[in-house]
Amino acid sequence: MPVKYNRTKKKWQLTDSNDNVIASSNAGLIGKTEIELKELELNAPTLYILATAFGKDNLRFMHRLIRAANVVRAGDVYKVPEKRSAANYRSREVVRSQSDRDVYYNVEFNYGAYSCNCEDFERGATMHLEGYGQVCSHALASHLAYCSGIYLDDAPRGAKNDHT
Length: 164
Ligand SMILES: [Zn+2]
Description:
Layout: E1 3-6, E2 11-15, E3 21-26, H1 29-43, H2 45-55, H3 59-73, E4 77-79, E5 90-96, E6 104-110, E7 113-116, H4 119-122, H5 137-148
Antiparallel strand pairs: 1-2, 2-3, 4-5, 5-6, 6-7
Helix pairs in contact: 1-2, 1-3, 2-3, 2-5, 3-5
The structure holds zinc ion.
């Protein structure tokens, strides 16, 4: 179900496969986010519940959560099995870039904090699930996948870099 901007009506719209409008909202980031959330609610309810729980009252963070949810839905979060351990509260995932399909990022969760080797994160982003500060979409995608219990495939061969 695509989310589209209708230039004639100046509205963000969610349409079904027959191009019928299911929901519409005003132009701008608020309207776009409302329609993207509606789409998530209809098609990925667990991710919708998580996104609204984490992103409440913070539009920019919500927008990033929706992007992260779509990374999870695309099947672009992979586990790194040899590093995963519930006992020491540590996990590691590989997340495929949405803009460059040849690029994979390493996300680590270590004693309560996420880190990622993407540029967003290395520029000084810090991980606060409450929505403060800047959070990269890869770490968020890992978190949403983990919280929703979505099964993660093993990282594709060659996707792991030398980040140890
Ligand atoms: Zn990242």
